[in-house]
Amino acid sequence: MISKNQISRIRSLHQKKYRDELNLFIAEGEKVVSELISSDIKIHSIYATEQFDNLMMSRFDDVTAIGKLSNYQIIKSSNRVEIIKEEELKKISALTTPQGVLAVAEMPKPLLVSEINTNQLFLVLDEIKDPGNLGTIIRIADWFGFQDVVCSENSADAFSPKVVQAAMGSLFRINILYTDLSSFLKEVAADEKLPVYGSLLDAENIYKAKLKNRGCIVIGNESKGISVALLPFITDKISIPSFTKGKIDSLNAAMAAAIVCSEFRRRG
Amino acid sequence: MISKNQISRIRSLHQKKYRDELNLFIAEGEKVVSELISSDIKIHSIYATEQFDNLMMSRFDDVTAIGKLSNYQIIKSSNRVEIIKEEELKKISALTTPQGVLAVAEMPKPLLVSEINTNQLFLVLDEIKDPGNLGTIIRIADWFGFQDVVCSENSADAFSPKVVQAAMGSLFRINILYTDLSSFLKEVAADEKLPVYGSLLDAENIYKAKLKNRGCIVIGNESKGISVALLPFITDKISIPSFTKGKIDSLNAAMAAAIVCSEFRRRG
After folding, report:
1. CATH class, range A113-267
2. Are the C-beta atoms of residues A120 and A213 closer than 8 Å to each other?
3. Which residues pair with residue A175 across a beta bridge?
4. Which of B170, B255, B259 sits opposite A248 (nearest CB)?
């Protein structure tokens, strides 16, 4: 049984304003919640249907852990799992079809500019507006072993329910920072040896360009590309050549990110 | 003014059953409709708001065509453009926020197995269920100059409104065929020299694998990967290596397609 107060508190987390105020976010479904409870992020509470609870109580985190409590069992033993009905789950879920479980977790500490590992490659996202794209890009960053993702302040919010679902657990392994990109890139540019790669149309063919394994890769907005204000900071313009004779004008931002990240990692 | 009959006829095209029956589909928004009317696909009718009509009537297809009628103007001169109100557009649109125009067009002839150009690379999609993924993959195919896309019969329908919108015009430049993939690949395999590439986990690193510029590339379902029934037909197993120490279990199907297509084209 879940109270009206609880319902409205959890529902408020669908909105950025309240996520910031309460410093909490929600994650849903077996896959994402399983990734969440095996991450370092603190779980506030879990709302599960009986069916989901049965599934999780019968499962061990890995074969070597049989006999040991799973993370889910530990959370349950500290009274942070509430068994609720399907209809109750519908009231707090941000999904059209709820998936058996919703977890409320504490927001991880945001990455600080000073903490960014500039000895590695990292991503800079300039106004990625679509939550699905942002989630997908976070998943790509994770796949290709990028640790830090810097987003412009007008990008989609990484802890909105749609991004959390699209990132499928990768969000919990990536450090994220929202900041003003002009100031950020000005600061970054102070390190003269740090390349700032920008994915643009009509730039150097990425397959032939010199790519280092250090620096930042700027991915532009879905329809406008990289902001004019950021162009002066791009030291290396790269582009994914089209093989279709110029009829198609742009690749989806997440696709471009996937191809660019793949090409950087291929070179090693 | 649009009649009740027209509304229910256009709305019926949101469903595959009626698209097949009437041999028509819908496309919406400036970008997609502009691509549609500059393609070879036959336009049945266009429903536009006054604002959209004004925009299109003042526009020429390209700078060299000033003074010549644009495709839109030609369609309008044959009385196939109907000016409707925003509220009427809402009634026929498949979008949450209609975008000024909806076109009804004839389905292009499906590609035949015998017409597939096996001297080039082509894509084979095994149960891509998500319309957004299918649209994105069609866009990737277009970007990388793949002409033919073969889909399993249980894939999302390429002419559903969501796929049409996600493909952003690329759908009108790609040949699509729905067929039983087991039979299809059996037939294809008769050409012993035709490689069948399959994107799988734990296969040969695609960056190091031998890739030819001929053959088919099989992309598997979003959660299940390539069907067990199709595995015997895969001659070359390839995989995109992860750089994150095995914590992430799979890439989104459209992402995998983007990276694989990019790598094939990079090799030339």
Report:
1. alpha beta
2. yes
3. A148
4. B170
Give the nearest partner residue to A247 out of B140, B173, B255, using CB atoms. Answer: B173
* pLDDT-above-70 percentage for chain A: 96
Residue pair B136/B210 in contact (Cβ under 8 Å)? The answer is no
B151 touching A, CB under 8 A? no
A251 in B contact zone (CB under 8 Å)? yes
Helix, strand and coil in chain A, % to nearest 5: 40, 20, 40
Top residue of B137, B143, B162, B240 to mutate, by most chain A CBs within 10 Å, is B143
CA distance B256 to chain A (A): 8
pTM for the full predicted model: 0.91
Q: Which of B169, B243, B262 sits opposite A259 (nearest CB)?
A: B262
pLDDT-based confidence at B33, cuts 50/70/90?
very high
**B266 and A262: CB-CB below 8 Å?**
no
Helix (H) or strand (E) holding A81: strand A81-83
- Residue A39's Cβ-side half-sphere holds a number of Cα atoms within 13 Å equal to 25
CATH 3.30.1330.30 for domain A4-106: yes
Among residues A14, A10, A53, which one has the least CA distance to residue A30?
A53
A199 touches chain B (CB under 8 A): no
B187-243 pLDDT, tens digit each: 887 777 899 999 887 789 999 999 999 999 999 998 889 999 999 999 999 999 988
So what's the pLDDT on residue A246? Answer: 62
| pLDDT over threshold 80, residue A5 | yes
Q: Give the per-residue pLDDT at A69.
A: 81
> Of all helices (H) and strands (E), which one includes residue B206?
none
Residue B63 is predicted with a pLDDT of 58
DSSP assignment letter at A208: T
Among chain B residues, the shortest Cα distance to A249 is held by B143
Write down the ipTM of this complex. Answer: 0.89
- Strand-by-strand arrangement of the A121-125 sheet: A175-179, A148-152, A121-125, A215-219, A196-205, A236-239
Q: Where exactly are the structural domains of chain B? A: 4-106, 113-267
Cross-chain residue pair A243–B207, CB shorter than 8 Å: no
Category of B104 on φ-ψ map: left (φ > 0), alpha (ψ -120 to 50) or beta: beta
Q: Does B10 touch chain A (CB under 8 A)?
A: no
Q: Where are the alpha helices (DSSP H) in chain B?
A: 4-12, 16-22, 30-37, 50-57, 71-77, 86-92, 131-143, 161-167, 181-189, 253-267
Collapse the DSSP code of A19 into the 3-class scheme (helix H, G, I; strand E, B; otherwise coil) and give the result. Answer: helix
pLDDT-based confidence at A216, cuts 50/70/90?
A: very high
Contact B258 A263 (CB under 8 A): no
